[in-house]
Amino acid sequence: MRNHPLIKALLALRGNPRAVVYTEPLWGVPHHLYAPFAAVYMSALLLTDRQIGLVASVSMFFQAISALLGGAITDKLGRKKTTFIFDILSWSIPTLLWAFSQNFWWFIVAAAFNGLWQITNTSWLCLLVEDAEKSSIVNIFSLIYLSGQLAVVFAPFSGLLVSSLTVVPTMRILYAFTFLSMTAKFIILNIYCTETTVGMVRKKETSGMTIWGILSGYGAVLRQIFADPGMVLALAVSAMFNISGMVMGTFFGLFTTGTLMIPQHFLAYFPILRSVIIVLFMFVIQSKISRFGYKGPMLVGIMFYIVSHVALMLSPQGNLLIPCIYILLESAGTALVMPRLDSIKALLIEPSERARILSIMTVLVLAVNIPFGYLAGWLSDMDRRLPFGLDIIIFSLAFITIAMSKRLTAESLDQTQAETESITG
Predict the structure, then answer these.
(1) Is residue 99 included in any domain, yes or no?
(2) CATH number, domain with residue 88
(3) Is residue 267 situated within a structural domain?
(4) Which of 141, 205, 220, 389 is 20 to 30 A from 251 (CA-CA)?
């Protein structure tokens, strides 16, 4: 096992990548405990599907604003300081609000704070990759995904609590635990990480500038993004998967428990099946398919997404097998698509402008996404199968976009592929 490429990559981590990867379970474990029940918790507190969708749209709105500011703040304050401050604001505060929520407005305020995570997402990603070897980036992202999936082994605990205490008291306990665990993670990461080389340069360059002054240069960055076909591709595909991920994450629990009549405590066990499949792909399949580059595996992954959604929409009431098949296929798709999508973004972005480019790209992605939370909630109010039909349309567009892309052919990514193979074996 120690000779597996991912294990060797984990043991070889140093500096900021090591601090980020090693502390990730303190975020991942509590997140995977509460996430399956988040929408069901809101429903139990008498929020309608449309209100739940509106909460998601409010979160997207504040994410778009914070993403716009994220690059400038990250350059001005530095990667390390920005990550610590906005981790506290975007996760510690909303988890307390969720723990004590009483009605729709509590969730709206929490969504506004939680939307600030796009600022720390930019700074956190810079901490992760800026001082890392370029050839190790794919494995670093694979380790991040793997860390999150291994955290799911604790999910049965939340299922046991739901079956004995019901959803509302269970979620209040889980959100309180999340506050403690995530806050500890933020403090430990702040202690053990250091400012990146690029971060120190950008802090010096922006020391005499205001945040608004830094933002004034975003027009040139926007033109740079749209002048690069690779970044346009990453932008378009990211927008599509962001929409689909929001729909799946928000409405799967409502559909399975409210329409298929699956007992609520089973929501804690679905993530385990999902994690098993993703971990198997990471350890068994991932290293064997690196020679196929990016396009082929991503197209296969999207097909898994589409088939999984069709199966779920056709599932009869009370049938537990079909949701399990959905999870199996959806997780296989995730293992094939998401590490490659993140790697493409990391590899195609100019390092000296990474913070601002990431911010602008994220703003554009979220601006497209804002109406889809409410739209999916409106569709769900009519028929809880309809949000998954929306996802199928989005996946089909993503498939066509990637299939037609010349940038993702094996020939155009020969150098990246060779670097990937040297690490993944």
Answers:
(1) yes
(2) 1.20.1250.20
(3) yes
(4) 141
Domains: count for the chain = 1
Question: Could you state, in chain order, the average pLDDT of each consecutive group of 10 residues for the chain (425 residues)?
Answer: 70 84 91 91 95 94 89 91 97 98 97 94 88 73 75 84 94 97 97 92 88 79 83 87 90 91 89 82 73 81 96 92 93 87 73 72 87 93 94 95 74 44 40
Containing structural domain, residue 114: 14-424
How far is 129 from 391, CA to CA, in rounded Å?
A: 31
Q: Is residue 9 part of a domain?
A: no
Q: Is residue 424 within 8 Å of 288, Cβ to Cβ?
A: no
Asked if residue 3 is part of any domain, the answer here is no
pLDDT digit string, tens, across residues 71-92: 889 999 999 999 999 999 999 9
Q: What is the pLDDT of residue 7?
A: 77
In angstroms, rounded to a whole number, what is the distance separating the alpha carbons of residues 91 and 112? Answer: 11
Report long-range pairs for 337-341 (Cβ below 8 Å, ≥24 apart). Answer: 337/241, 337/297, 337/298, 337/301, 337/302, 337/305, 338/145, 338/241, 339/138, 339/141, 339/142, 339/145, 339/286, 340/138, 340/294, 340/297, 340/298, 341/234, 341/237, 341/238, 341/241, 341/298
